[in-house]
Design goal:
With 116 residues, the chain is an all-beta fold. The chain contains no helices and eleven strands.
């Protein structure tokens, strides 16, 4: 029903910045909220940030003050601006879309690598 495509990942030095993008297509009118999750090697997937259709944002404690989630309604796209990146931020970052039935849709992920 919903297709998500992430982009913007790459290699960055500690303290650097990256901007991730997630474009949604399909049944976009069903989307209640979108957001970002990440999964590092050997770890479980964890919440990074979410944003509702009304623009309300939530962040994981470990990214507060460093990451900002935003949206562009005209492009059906959400962004994750990541500043002050740390080596522990290295992970595959996944875009997420949630519909009111609590069903989640996921993108393929984009790799973020922060050198140590």
């Amino acid at each position: 029903q919903v297709q998500l495509v992430e982009s913007g990942g790459g290699l960055v030095q500690p303290g650097g910045s990256l901007r991730l993008s997630c474009a949604a297509s399909g049944s976009i009118f069903s989307i209640y909220a979108m957001g970002w999750y990440r999964q590092a090697p050997g770890k479980q997937r964890e919440l990074v940030a979410t944003i509702t259709s009304g623009g309300s944002s939530n962040y994981a404690d470990f990214v507060k003050g460093r990451f900002t989630v935003s949206r562009d309604n005209a492009k059906n796209t959400v962004y994750l601006q990541m500043n002050s990146l740390k080596p522990e931020d290295k992970a595959v970052y996944y875009c997420n879309a949630r519909i009111p039935t609590m069903i989640n849709f996921w993108g393929q992920g984009t790799q973020v690598t922060v050198s140590s």
